[in-house]
Amino acid sequence: MIKVLPFEEPIVQLKTKIEELKEYTASADVDMSAEIIHLEARLKKLEHEIYENMEPWDRVQVARHPSRPTTRDYIQLLCTDFMELHGDRLYGDDAAIIGGIALFEGRPITIIGHQRGIDTKENIKRNFGMPHPEGYRKALRLMKQAEKFKRPIICMIDTKGAYPGKAAEERGQSEAIARNLVEMAGLKVPVISIVIGEGGSGGALALGVANHIHMLENSTYSVISPEGAASILWKDASLAKQAAEAMKITAPDLKKMEIIDTVIQEVHGGAHKNIEAQAEYMKETLINSLIELEKLTPDELIENRYIKFKNIGEFNE
After folding, report:
1. Where is the CoA carboxyltransferase C-terminal domain (predicted)?
2. What pTM value is reported for the model?
């Protein structure tokens, strides 16, 4: 059963009413077709009003939806001949990061992303999509391999953040993230990142130093969660809704600030409503990005990345 988000309750109630009338019409000798048509028109209008005017906190909830598609879901729909590669060649394999070689529209690419679980058992295996250092080192190994063989890199970001546990810190969590930032900045192949869910803190940025950064319409990208920001600013995590509005963490806000390049449209209600359609929207954006970036020389790709991040945060008084 798909979880119903609070702002969707009026839609669900109206859909339930329509289904009840259809069942009643089928079982009783009463024609309710005019009322059904009227309610369906009202439902369409209501869906448009709600989904076109979502508040930041609504988008946060959609980004966290347990049924939201994961990196693996999109790999299966966007790519063919995916070969997953494992391990960082230093410590072990981190299931919170998946990556490998695949064909995208007939061209070889390297694709890497955070991977959440789809149930409790898998979430424990994948550490709820929060990587350890070996996960980021695996990602970097695959990126350097892609550079060697001149394959474009596509990264999918979907994590609350890097794992903050003792073992991760002992194995060099901050160094692993910092190393990714440095090395990604100098890669001589096109790098494209897409935020597909939550993009949290340095754990997200470790896959985010790209020539093009895209975001799904209902994803978020921030240095801290709304709850964390509310706890720091107001000592009250329950004020997360206000924090989400103040932080400007949604795709439309980040596009206005020119931190990201493209807001990828989502199907009404979120990507989990129709994964196949969502993958098609993403495919169009990825194709356009690759066409644009493959025109650039290796030096121009590095310069493009440098200018992009140098300009972030500029302001005029």
Report:
1. 29-292
2. 0.91
